[in-house]
Amino acid sequence: MAIALTTSALNDLPATVDRPGYDRAGLKPGILHVGVGNFHRAHMAWYLDQLFEAGEGHDWALVGAGVRPGDAAMRDRLAAQDWLTTVVELDPNGLSARVIGSMIDFVEVDPAKVIDAMADPAIRIVSLTITEGGYYVDAKTDGFDAAHPDMAHDATHPDAPRSVFGMILAAMRKRRAAGHDPFTVMSCDNLPENGHVCARTVTELAQLSDPALAEWIRQNIAFPNSMVDCITPATSDRERALVRDRFGITDAVPVVCEPFRQWVLEDNFPQGRPQLEKVGAEFVADVSKHELMKLRILNGGHAAIAYPSALLGHHFVHDAMADPQIEAWLRALESREIVPTLTPIDGVNYADYLELIVSRFANPEIGDTIPRLCLDGSNRQPKFILPTLADALRHDFPIDGLAQEVAFWCRYCERTDEAGNEIAPNDDNSDALREFALASRKDPLAFLSNRTVFGPLADNPRFQEAFTRKLKLVQEQGVAAAIKAYLG
């Protein structure tokens, strides 16, 4: 019989399950985290749990928070199990499970209560995992999207905000009025210079309603950049059954992840921070090179395999990587066109990092899916592929493979695979993307006319020529022929 996960049941769990050896009742809050999804619990919450297990940092426990209606369901599920989570590491050499206890509370999903929790002087860090698209970036200008309805609302209703950034501002005003030190705001999302992007959104929103507050934030609030990495699939009945049947635990929201994590942070925390370097995190003066390496080689690699694999009918990432043409395509694109755009990092060998990425993608235990990698292409392509393409064009580097990746995405946006099976919409802009993709059957440049995605890249003659050539190849001869031509 599986045991329902609660604090009182910890001692009854099977011996194969690791669990907190520290006194959770003695933990004190120090971090409020918005966006308590799988990645956060497999990554940041795991690092803190490891630190607490080492007897350190017990005044840095996590308080969860959410700002969307769906966050309430996560809160309810975690509340029923005393904020505990089972994390299963999907090591092909043997699975392991640990119950992590670094979260000690979760604020009710109500703006006023979230603001009050942020205003508590015990909270010295407010951290965010709100997805790459959650920072109100104007896709056309790459600047702050002041016209977004959420931002317009929060600018005119600063005391009743609906976005996390409006809540941060309201909490900052409370703390400043009470004479309390401001908290550090730490983004944990996959964004280039995520701290800078977060700072821009917070200060530009403040500028709309309270310029003096905006200036105070610029002078007093830290927004450290960070690079985060751990492949973490979504939780489904498959994962819940794994935790139940393999480890004897009934957990409504378990997390499975690969046995690899990386966290590189700028060391800019004026109100202090947990000593996470003791459990494997890296603190550096400038995280940008590590960040770019990960965004281009790993996230760009995911994009590279996603669309040709979907068109060929692959569902799981490890099955796609077992297809020799997909693995060869990934290696060739990375080594020929992606890695050359990166500047050296002391102590890092890009060839070794690429081998690590290939082995991580090929891990059959993860069960990561191609549909997940294809998700939200209109937001991900401008972050993970197009900047690499722009750099390659700027330096007159080869771009045929990068143009081929965009051509694969275009063909995918038609929403049928090569066998004629329908591909379910998985982008907020799916309908518009499909129209652009179908129009490209007659005029390949029609797809590039989507300025929201491509911006000035659409006007580059070299990109236009390469994309036109590569798109015609995949439309007329298919994915395998396109890959073969590139490899040749």
UniProtKB/TrEMBL annotation:
Q: Where is the Mannitol dehydrogenase N-terminal domain?
A: 30-278
Q: Which Gene3D superfamilies match?
A: N-(1-d-carboxylethyl)-l-norvaline Dehydrogenase, domain 2 (1.10.1040.10), NAD(P)-binding Rossmann-like Domain (3.40.50.720)
Mannitol dehydrogenase C-terminal domain residues are: 286-473
| Pfam families xrefs | Mannitol_dh, Mannitol_dh_C
Q: Which keywords, in A-to-Z order, does the entry hold?
A: Oxidoreductase
Instruction: Supply the name of the protein.
Output: Mannitol dehydrogenase family protein
Organism, scientific name: Paracoccus maritimus
